[in-house]
Amino acid sequence: MPRDDLPIPAEGILLTHFVVAADVARSAAFYRDVLGGTVVREGEPSMVRLANSWVIINVGGGPTEDKPDVILETPPDPHRTSAFLNIRVADIQAVYAEWSARGGVFLTPPQDRGAEIRCYLRDPDGHLIEVGQTV
């Protein structure tokens, strides 16, 4: 039986998104208060259920036995990224208005790109988040 409060798959796989935060509580509050998620685990790591997915938030750190050459850190330059969270919505104008009212700061208002309307915001550590609506 699946547990709705934790990202534990009942079968197959389940995709979560991991973000490195300088302040885990601050980032969890952003994903809860601005994006409307539910914090299901506090501390390090914190877990936030966001719609039908989860965001796992933890501090960075040096290599471990299972990733011996990897250092986890917040984005060193918010103007460069190699991956980002992509959130698909039914009504981008409503989400843009709601999240802006909750303190979300978007890079631009939603832009019509033909096949989709999209805009971007950042979490407190600079992780890029795309919000898009397919048209």
Question: What do you see in this structure?
Answer:
- By secondary structure, the chain is of the alpha/beta class.
- The protein has one domain: Roll (2,3-Dihydroxybiphenyl 1,2-Dioxygenase, domain 1).
- It has two helices and eight strands, in the order E-H-E-E-E-E-H-E-E-E.
- The strands form two sheets. It has a four-stranded mixed β-sheet with strand order 1-4-3-2, with helices on one face. A four-stranded mixed β-sheet has the order 5-8-7-6, with no helix packed on it.
- Strand 7 (116-122) and strand 8 form a beta hairpin.
- The longest helix is centred in the first third of the chain and has 10 residues, at 24-33.
- The radius of gyration is 16 Å and the shape is globular.
- The termini are far apart.
- 25% of the residues are buried.
- The mean pLDDT is 95.
